[in-house]
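Recall from the previous lesson that a structure prediction takes nothing but the amino acid sequence as input. Here we apply that procedure to MerR family transcriptional regulator from Planosporangium mesophilum. The sequence below is the only information supplied.
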Amino acid sequence: MAYTLVTAPRQARLSLDAFAANAGIHPELLRRLITLGLLDPYVDGAGQYWFSPTELSTIARARRLHDGLGLNYAALGVVLDLLARIDELEAALRAGRRLPSRRNPSWT
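The prediction returns the following tokens.
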């Protein structure tokens, strides 16, 4: 299966319909992903959703995981959180910073 390269438009924020069109998904699926907490759009005073163009990469990653590995939407949230944490740790290592701890004391 081939995936297209995600290129973010030069706009500061995208409306729900524009974001869905750029991501290649139906607006209703986008609303479902918001409800599941996979995306965190800005909501204006009129209740309209607005997205950063950089979130297109999150959608692309979620689609690859869903299509390629058959992950359901609940599992996508867990995997996306883990991948974000890995990205954060790798960036800290590259920058030579001390790694931040997120260990939950109640787990020990």
